[in-house]
Amino acid sequence: MKYLLISFLALFSITLSAQEAPEAAAEPQISAEEFLQSLKPQSGNITLPNKVATIQLKEGFQYLSPESTEKLLVDAWGNPPGNETLGMIIPVSVSPLAENGWGVVITYDEDGYVSDEDADSIDYSELLNDMKEESATVNEERKKQGYGSMLLVGWAEPPHYDKNSHKYYWAKEFSTDNTQENSLNYNIRILGRKGVLVLNAVAGMNQISTVKAQMPELLAVTEFTEGNRYQDFNAQTDHVAEYGLAALVAGGVAAKMGFFAKLAAFFIAFKKLIIIGAVALVGFIGKLIGRKSQN
Known about the structure:
33% of the residues lie in helices and 23% in strands. By secondary structure, it is of the alpha+beta class. The strands form 2 sheets. A 7-stranded antiparallel sheet has the order 3-4-5-9-8-7-6, sandwiched between helices.
């Protein structure tokens, strides 16, 4: 917990110190097009950096490396730095810099084999109430750290679990205090032999129809590699996770790691929903680092 707290405080000290430091000289500015090119999007069949899964992208999607994902999340969307991802998927049909841009952040929780024995016994109404209480607690700390309010409203899509494919999905709606539009988190969890592949789509609530229509396509083409699949589990040698399906919905591993870990996970829960004019966008991206999120 000591090291977690130090990392947590360091994350904010970096942001604040960058904001407080005087500008030594004018930084070169780049256009939105140049920024997008610097992300170096990839197409086709993608093997994730940790080699545990593949994504067979169709023409409508592109993949960003972990480095490019960090650049988009921090420099364009205003999230705090230090996001550990396996990359990100963005739709080709809309720019991620546009007001209606959205993307799917990919991570991996290697906490062991997650049993799905509780699949039929979860009370999602009770679980939602618990999550709302947790959201209110974490939200108070968000505001203390200078980030805007963000509260869980409810299900945008109730949880569904497919016992055959071991794929789990749901969507949450969040309210924020700096926009009239609520934020959407569309969540996919794919259970594997040693952990869970996490795909979180972040967008606005007005995009839920688009996201709901396209996320199943990504769900269908994302698979664990041989040896890492759920059915490859070996009860004699493999570790079993300390939580089940309900904990995945509530927050996964963050639910058992303590307050500061839950808070850190909460910060990357949504896209910065602001309207940026074309001229302002050039200047905003020209900074590229050290901008504190308005969220």
